[in-house]
Design goal:
This protein has 391 residues and is mainly alpha-helical. The protein is 65% helix and 2% strand. The chain folds into three domains: 126 residues, no CATH class; 101 residues, no CATH class; 116 residues. Strands 1-2 form a two-stranded antiparallel ribbon.
Length: 391
């Protein structure tokens, strides 16, 4: 996309602006100031917008001040809180994710008593993001009471019912995502709200050891899927790595087709993505074999590829072109992979990536146009990066 297209998108999606803002440089800022539609991207919101603005203006104001002075933003929200509609309360609460801290806890604890369920759930979700919050401590105590780990074996006593405190803490009576029954759903929600580091403390076990114990139990999928949710919430890297190691050992299991598994991949930091993708590819003979972790990593991750990963994919891709049989059966995934490579690879590798192709290979004939387009995209990205760096 061109810079004007990116700036148009930023006006429609403020969260996208936050991602590209550090990279636009002085030239990008100059360009923004030439267009009245884009100028609000660089401007501070109207000081009176919180009290007098439309909903979108108030959201912009709250978002801005949560970044600049989170306490000031929260205190202004408290002033108008009881005059807001339930829908707006939930919207405003979600913006407290920005610079969320324990200083927000007293207000969020009060929100657990709100008359409207969406507001209570939003507050509970935010409190669960704080490892040292009282809500996290309550969830940890519940899990410790119901789940025992002795000698690498699991003893799970599912809760019979939910008390008022559990309901206020966001544990819901019925959750379709838990297929093992109502009581299993109660416990799964509790475990999903426990900071993963607390599990290590409670059970005095490393992540890999706990995952092995969970996997051997009758409740393996429930326990691991709930832990995945907790790991995604807290982005605990050592747990992400342990879960991906377990995934590599159990590729093809139904668990890895779940929404929770997809979110785990999305939570992976870039260095770990590159390390795990190289390991996952090395475990396979091909590149995009169905049901393999390597396939999902290559097809879904937004991270930039390291040079080592790019060159590994490049070598495997050329080998596949030599035969061409896979491409004749289904070439769409490989066309998509070429496009992904063109946006994720380091443009400095262009000279390496443009050479070494066997133009007579059966697969090359099928994908020649896509290969040329991928190389053109690499050149374009290289030029854009150079302009932004000198802007």
């Amino acid at each position: 996309a061109s810079l004007p297209e990116l700036f148009d998108r930023c006006r429609e999606a403020p969260e996208f602006w936050e991602k590209i803002k550090p990279a636009i440089g002085r030239r990008g800022e100059w360009l923004i100031r030439q267009n009245p539609f884009w100028r609000p991207l660089l401007a501070e919101p109207d000081p009176d917008a919180w009290m007098t603005g439309r909903t979108e203006e108030r959201l912009t104001w709250l978002r801005f001040w949560r970044k600049k002075d989170p306490d000031f933003a929260r205190e202004n929200l408290i002033v108008t809180w009881h005059t807001e509609s339930p829908e707006k309360r939930a919207q405003f609460l979600n913006l407290l994710r920005i610079n969320l801290s324990l200083r927000d806890e007293p207000f969020l604890e009060d929100c657990l008593y709100d008359a409207r369920k969406p507001v209570r759930l939003a507050a509970a979700e935010l409190l669960a993001l704080l490892p040292d919050s009282a809500l996290s401590a309550r969830m940890t105590a519940r899990v410790k009471m119901y789940l025992k780990v002795k000698g690498g074996k699991i003893e799970l006593d599912l809760p019979e019912e939910l008390d008022e405190t559990a309901l206020r803490d966001g544990i819901q009576g019925k959750m379709k995502s838990y297929r093992a029954g109502l009581r299993a759903g109660y416990f799964g929600q509790m475990l999903a709200k426990v900071p993963p580091a607390r599990l290590e403390e409670i059970y005095q076990s490393a992540p890999a050891d706990l995952l092995r114990a969970f996997a051997k139990s009758d409740w393996g999928d429930l326990l691991i899927e709930s832990v995945i949710q907790a790991v995604v919430m807290h982005k605990t890297e050592r747990w992400i790595e342990a879960l991906l190691d377990y995934w590599l050992q159990t590729e093809g299991a139904p668990l890895w087709k779940s929404d929770a598994a997809t979110r785990l991949l999305e939570a992976m930091p870039a260095p770990l993505f590159n390390t795990m993708t190289i390991r996952a590819i090395s475990k396979t003979e091909g590149l995009l074999s169905p049901g393999r972790l390597a396939t999902q990593l290559l097809q879904t991750s937004p991270h930039e590829w390291s040079d080592e990963l790019t060159l590994l994919v490049f070598r495997r891709f050329r080998a596949i072109l030599e035969d061409g049989a896979l491409l004749r059966w289904n070439d769409k995934p490989y066309r998509a992979l070429l496009e992904t490579l063109s946006y994720r690879a380091n443009p400095a590798l262009y000279d390496v990536l443009k050479s070494g192709w066997n133009i007579h290979a059966p697969g090359f004939v099928l994908l020649e146009t896509d290969i040329e387009q991928a190389l053109r995209t690499l050149v374009f990205r290289g030029k854009m990066i150079a302009e932004l760096e000198t802007g």
